[in-house]
Amino acid sequence: MTSATTASKSPFWRLFLTGMPSQAWISRQAKNLALPLVGILVFLLLWQAAASNIETSLGQFPGPAAVWEQSHNLVDEYQQARQKEAAFYERQYERRDKILAEDPDAAVRIFDYPGKPTFFDQIVTSLYTVMFGFLVATLIAVPLGVVCGLSETLYRAINPLIQVFKPVSPLAWLPLVTMVVSALYISDDPMFDKSFLTSAFTVTLCCLWPTVINTAVGVAGIDKDLVNVSRVIRLPALKHVQKVVLPSAIPMIFTGLRLSLATGWMVLIAAEMLAQNPGLGKFIWDEFQNGSSNSLGRIMVAVIVIGFIGFLLDIIMLAVQRRVSWDKNAVLR
User: Fold this and answer.
1) pLDDT above 60 (res 252)
2) Which one of 90, 115, 140 terminates a domain?
3) In the chain, beta strands by DSSP E
4) What average pLDDT does the segment 220-229 reach?
5) Is this prediction's pTM over 0.85?
6) pLDDT of residue 143
7) In terms of domains, do 105 and 168 share one?
8) CB 177, CB 201: distance < 8 Å
9) Residue 273's domain spans which residues?
10) Residue 25 has pLDDT above 80, yes or no
11) DSSP three-state, residue 115
12) Collapsing DSSP states into helix, strand and coil, what is residue 2?
């Protein structure tokens, strides 16, 4: 079969040459689209049926319609907050201009907007915190996992510590991290808030272990033929790691990274809720404490957003893995 014949049978070339995709391609795409939609529709119907039969102390449990309404309210609150913020700074700039017109040498201070963070501000805070903690954990865990995978002696020495600390709950780490940050991070002009560092380092501690373990397993399982070839051509140690170890271990490394990021995202929400640090966790706790008739709907919006962000973070990690992996035909799930 010629390459031209093969190309003409592909969906892209068929669409380009004839203007019509193949029936099999249409059927496959319809199936890929229809099945998730059916699953979501069934979930929404079951959710609505269950919610209509649940009465809580704060009112009826919110169904999809109530959650959709509260999502619009949160968007409106965000827009109103931005308008108030713009007006706040505009008044200060007008005041500054008047003072400087009378006295060009006057020192005029512009104050920060004192308004309460909106729901979307809390989302940005949580994302920033989890990525900081995750990156710190990655910078520690990947090199440690590579070294453990290359040296069985070191792995045997460190493995007991990994197994002891791996199952420790983030809620157990949180008080310790809080005290350490308060004791060591002392500055008249701090770059980061202590609450941010507390949440971020709690995430770091819980993100370490999946990446360390999976990286070590991936490195230890490298094809022996590749290791022998590296020895024959006498690759330096760093070149061996760069050209042989990391490319071969990438699938397991990214498995660990995806597990770590998912763990970090879950840990962060719990840490923010318990320590009342800024973020989505604090938003949920504040709404629960507020106890209004809209609180449950707003909490459900936050729950859905947390899940959706976790899903997007995993998709991003898969895209990065495809980008850096040498095997572009590997099936990634």
Assistant:
1) yes
2) 115
3) 55-56, 59-60
4) 83
5) no
6) 93
7) no
8) yes
9) 118-324
10) no
11) coil
12) coil
The amino acid at residue 52 is S
The burial of 274, by beta-carbon neighbours within 10 Å (0-12 exposed, 13-18 middle, 19 or more buried), is given as: middle
| Runs of H (alpha helix) within 151-245 | 152-165, 170-184, 194-220, 224-232, 237-240
Query: Higher confidence at residue 35 or residue 90?
Result: 90
For residues 213 and 318, membership in a common domain is answered with yes
Average pLDDT estimate for 15-31: 63
Buried b (16+ CB within 10 A) or exposed e, 163-176: eeeeeeebeebbee
Q: Is the dihedral of CA 101, 105, 106, 108 positive or negative?
A: positive
In the prediction, which pLDDT does 308 show? 94
Distances (CA, A) of 55 to 50, 52, 59, 61, 168: 10, 8, 6, 6, 36
List, for residues 192-201, the tens digit of each pLDDT value.
Answer: 888 889 999 9
Does residue 103 sit in the same domain as residue 131? Answer: no
Residue 156 domain flag: yes
Count of structural domains, the chain: 2
Residue type present at position 267: V
Which tokens in the block code for residue 125? 């805070």
Question: What share of the chain in percent tops pLDDT 90?
Answer: 41
